[in-house]
Amino acid sequence: MSGVASAPPARGQAFSFGGVRALLRDSPVIPLIGLLVLLVVLFEVLRPGFVSVNWAGGMVRAAIPLAVLAACQTITMLTGGIDLSVAAIASMTGFLVATLIGSVGLPAAIVIALLCAALAGLVNGIGVGVFRVHPLIMTLGMSLIVFGLANVWQVQRVQTGAGVPVEFRTLGAGTFLGVFPNSLALFVPLAAVVLIGLHRTGYGRLLYAIGDNPVAARLSGVRSWQVLIVLYVISAVLAGLAGFLYTGLNNTASVALVETQLLPSVAAAVVGGTSILGGRGGYGGTIVGALILTVAGALLNALGFKEADRLILFGAIIVVFTAAYARITSDN
Amino acid sequence: MNPTIDDAPAQRGQVLGAWVRNNAWALGLIGFLAVLLAFTRTIQPTYGVSGVQGLAISALPLALAAVAQAVVVISGGIDLSIGSMMALTSVVAASLMEGQSEEVAVVIVLGVLVLGLVLGAVNGTVIVLTKVPDIVVTLAMLFVWAGTALLVSRAPGGESAQWLRDLVLGSVGNEWIPKAAVVLFAVVAIVWIPLRRSRLGLSLYAVGSNPLAAFRSGVSVGRTKIAAYMLTGLFSAMAGLSLTASTGLATPLPGPYTLLSVAAVVLGGVSLAGGRGGVLGPILAVVILSLIRTDMTFMRWDPNYATVAQGAILVGVVMVGTLFQRRRMRA
User: What are phi and psi of A176, to 5 degrees?
Assistant: First the structure.
């Protein structure tokens, strides 16, 4: 949650309606944290005794892989795109490492898996940046290709079997000092890089510029195709890292492991205030969004709701939040 | 000789030329399909009546899904929830028809078609009211309808009425004419052709090619969009029913139909920018895609390569299509 601290403080007129609008528009992180606290309180009221330090640790541990996956959506959505191949890529990297580790060792397996992810991202980037294919179609097509190839690989590797490396289990599911998830060790530096990259570097500004007004960006000399190719490679590599975390967290590797997390990853970015239309948002909100979705999912689970209800709810959340943010920010 | 009669062949030639030019894409697809069929015959000499039957039945749900996608894409939108709507309507039909008489099944089928219209109306209304992009709303609705399908299918099983199965299985008249193909063309002839010639059909194309111009010419853009999504819902419901009919059972999981319908629409010569194309091209594209899958099985390829090929075809076709579109805009 390192992104939270960087949010600017609320202005004085935050109590008037216009102030609330400005607050939601400029720093959605603060009201989002309020929503998160509200959810936790609701959890404690409806199911007393659940909420504890260990419970919070478990929630953070479950939210971290989702937050990494949602980082892919955040950075691509800033340019007006989306990356729907992240779930297939994440499943693929986890599965590749688990099947390769026996023959080439862990470091080489990780490198090969991330190279495969980067290759998929490169093709995405070329399709979106050079051929101007709509990102949604491009990445959906790529998810089919990756999923199909992973299945082919699975058929060929069926004799050797798959083993999740112990290091992944420690990283994804282990804790230190009793409650802190080990995955924080990967996530905190990663989140810092994404946050600083978006807000303090020229490349980050280019992403916002392309998403806000592609024509203006082009006229100011931005070579958007280069920016987009790099962007989709970064997104795919992030998805690959998320795949390692999911593999460790679930202690299984399969070609469809992360598939169910695709919609939540989009939802986390949308709830976090990143506009799917581009040019607006940031990673801090996404991290809180991932936490909100994880707690909300756990709450629904505790109340006995089924997978079907969760699907419906997440779908509704995406529409409602996108429409609400669009309304809030429509005055400029 | 009367001079007008002298001119007639030349005029006819011009009309023919224009017709060929307007349908060049569909004619090209027919040519490609012929080549593909010949190729299939070479690698599998026994491919014949039963092959064509199987092809028609397996292609029917996707063909209807492609028609559904084509309608909404022509009007300038896109519907990513088609696969889920198919799953939902299919599950509803199968679970309601279980243990019912053939007569009651007729009412159920009509009810499911109305359900399709309602689902589409919900999609369209949400898009028009919230002004959230089509692609986002239908992506979200994809999950909403899939969740609803899971809710409906709590009790496993379900079945299809016998007459519904008879409607798509087997052949009619000549053994080379599968019923599934007849049903498909009947549906298109009954729903699409009159529609295209109507005021609404013209509005669909107008809104798709330029919403502002359509608005200024007095077309109600919002209502036309909702109508387009309702038609998409209707065709999706037909696709869902054909799934129930051809398999006799229903799964609540959306198949690969949404993506493939997008691929078929683009491959069928419908512009993703809207306002251009028809439904014949997408139907031909579906037959081609299904035949490619069959050929891969004949060549003993891992069926998983078919998924890869579908993704690659989708991406490749959209890439080339977008490239052509930009050329045309620059010209």
Answer: -120, 155
User: Structurally, how many domains does chain B consist of?
Assistant: 1
Question: Scanning every residue of chain A, which has its alpha carbon at the shortest distance from the alpha carbon of B252?
Answer: A308
Residue A107 burial by CB count (10 A; 0-12/13-18/19+): exposed, middle or buried?
exposed
Half-sphere exposure at residue A264, Cβ-oriented, CA atoms within 13 angstroms: 26
Q: Most A CBs within 10 Å: which of B143, B260, B327, as the mutation test of the A interface? A: B143
Task: Assign B171 to helix, strand or coil.
Answer: strand
Cα angle value B273/B66/B145 (rounded, 5°): 95
Nearest Cα of chain A lies from the Cα of B122 at a distance, in angstroms, of: 12
The dihedral through the CA atoms of B246, B65, B313, B31 has a sign that is positive
Q: Per-residue pLDDT averaged across B93-99, rounded?
A: 84
* pLDDT averaged over 10-residue windows placed end to end, chain A, 332 residues: 42 54 74 90 86 89 95 95 94 92 89 97 94 86 90 75 79 83 91 94 93 90 92 97 93 86 88 86 93 90 84 86 79 48
CB proximity under 8 Å: B 32-51 to A: none
Gap between the Cα atoms of A87 and A51, Å rounded:
30
| Tens-digit pLDDT profile for residues B208-253 | 989 899 999 989 999 999 999 999 999 999 999 998 888 776 777 7
Residue B4: inside a domain, yes or no?
no
Interface contact flag, B132 A307, Cβ < 8 Å: no
CB distance B237 to B120 below 8 Å: no
Question: Which are the contacts of A209, defined by CB distance < 8 A and separation ≥ 6?
Answer: A216, A217, A220, A222, A279
Q: Which residue of B143, B149, B263 is in closest CB contact with A315?
A: B143
Class of domain A58-328: mainly alpha
**In chain A, positions 265-324, which contact chain B (CB-CB < 8 Å)?**
266, 276-277, 306-316, 318-319, 322-323
Partners of B253 on chain A (C-beta within 8 Å) are none
pTM above 0.90, yes or no: no
Backbone angles phi, psi at A180, to 5 degrees: -75, 125
| Nearest CA-CA partner of B296 in B318, B312, B283 | B312
Q: Do A132 and B322 touch (CB under 8 A)?
A: yes
Nearest chain A residue to B272, by CA: A134
Chain B touched by A142 (CB under 8 Å): yes
- The secondary structure element, H or E, covering residue A181 is strand A180-181
Residues of A with CB below 8 A from B132's CB?
319, 322-323, 326
The confidence band for B9, taking pLDDT boundaries of 50, 70 and 90, is: low
B294 in any annotated domain: no
CA distance B234 to B124: 13
Asked if residue B311 is part of any domain, the answer here is no
Locate A139 and state its tokens.
């990445």
Cα dihedral A135, A141, A144, A146, rounded to 10, equals -70
Which residues, listed in sequence order, are joined to residue B296 by a DSSP beta bridge? none
Q: Which domain holds residue B60?
A: 52-255
In a domain, B83, yes or no: yes
Interface ipTM: 0.76
